[in-house]
Give the backbone structure.
Amino acid sequence: MNKLVVSAALACALSACATSKPIVKPTRAPVNGLKMYYEIHGTLQTGQVPLVLIHGGGSTIDSTWGRMIPFLSKTRQIIAIEEQSHGRTADIDRVESFENTASDIVALLKFLKIPQVDVMGFSNGATTSLVMGIHYPAWVRKIIPASGIYARAGIAIKGFWKSFNHATLDAMPAQLKADFLRVNPDPAALQKMFERDVYRMVHFKDIPTAQIKKITAPTLVMTASSDVATVEHARKLASLVQHGQYMVFPGAHGQYIGESEFPADVSPNAAQATALIVDDFLR
């Protein structure tokens, strides 16, 4: 596996010496029957493509990416989305699946007249990023699946899959519930989102190895040392795609991107350090 080297110039670019001011444009787009909420941060630099950010299950843009976006948007344009039933994207009468979300994102790109992007997804969003690489290769330049899975056996937690059989909203992390209600103060919408996510996990089937091997986009697989999925699963994923690397961060699921479940004083520089690595890989 190749090592990623973060240059001093890049470190400067992600700190106070960055000159471009980020542009934030929250709005909704009509895609596949959804009114998909998305935000555009930062400006598109010469020679770059936008970076699409896909949040995790039960999450919003803010809860997954709130601490990463300020750093990433200093050097590139970010398009952050909220998928069906999550946050500010209302639910519709349709099954929530990784395939549907991937299709929705491509429809959004068509709406925005953007021919190609880089994609970074966290947790369930990482699985969606793999689906995009498999089914929409022309749209994807590079992929960063972070803390995701492509096979059920990749989960490190004993009893993980059985836990969804009788899951209730009480099992959802309190911080994620608060993050959802902050942007969509409708308890019924929160309940529906939870049910959609549980259904998706209960019915998740392994992505066949033959399909993973079809991914031609350069891929950086990220994981944590104490993640929901095993480090071996990340290593195997990186070995299966045609141009794969993997990186293991210290800590737990989401800690290295500064996910909202972790207090701001826990590894306060984690999001910035990860943003440096992301930016270097995407160059």
About this structure: The CA atoms of residues 178 and 201 lie 22 Å apart.
